[in-house]
């Protein structure tokens, strides 16, 4: 089962990034992918998925 996660959106809405489970899930080898959530509200560029990847890389 894959998990689609949006750390940037979660950080903006309710779960600060340092508490987001994405890095732990990814490090454990779980099937996770980055996704966008409400790109017109949360993201600042025309490439919301690139924003998610940039945020996750930090």
UniProtKB/TrEMBL annotation:
Chain residues that bind Zn(2+): 37
Pathway(s) served: Purine metabolism; IMP biosynthesis via salvage pathway; IMP from AMP: step 1/1
Cofactor(s) listed: Zn(2+)
Keywords: Hydrolase, Metal-binding, Zinc
GO CC annotation, single: cytosol
Stretches assigned to coiled coil: none
Entry GO MF terms: AMP deaminase activity; metal ion binding
EC number(s) stated in the UniProt entry for this protein: 3.5.4.6
Binding residue positions for substrate: 38-41
InterPro entries: A/AMP_deam_AS, AMPD, Metal_Hydrolase
Record Pfam families: AMP_deaminase
Gene3D superfamilies reported for this sequence: Metal-dependent hydrolases
One BP term from GO: AMP metabolic process
Statement: the UniProt record of this protein carries the keyword Cell membrane: no
Cofactor: binding details: Binds 1 zinc ion per subunit.
First-tier enzyme category under EC: hydrolase
Superkingdom: Eukaryota
Similarity comment text for this entry: Belongs to the metallo-dependent hydrolases superfamily. Adenosine and AMP deaminases family.
Cross-referenced PANTHER family: AMP DEAMINASE (PTHR11359:SF0)
Protein name per the record: AMP deaminase
Taxonomic source organism: Nymphaea colorata
């Amino acid at each position: 089962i894959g998990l689609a996660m949006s750390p940037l959106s979660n950080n903006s809405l309710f779960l600060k990034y340092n508490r987001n489970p994405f890095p732990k899930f990814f490090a454990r080898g779980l099937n996770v992918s980055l996704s966008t959530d409400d790109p017109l509200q949360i993201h600042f560029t025309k490439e919301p998925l690139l924003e998610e990847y940039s945020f996750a890389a930090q």
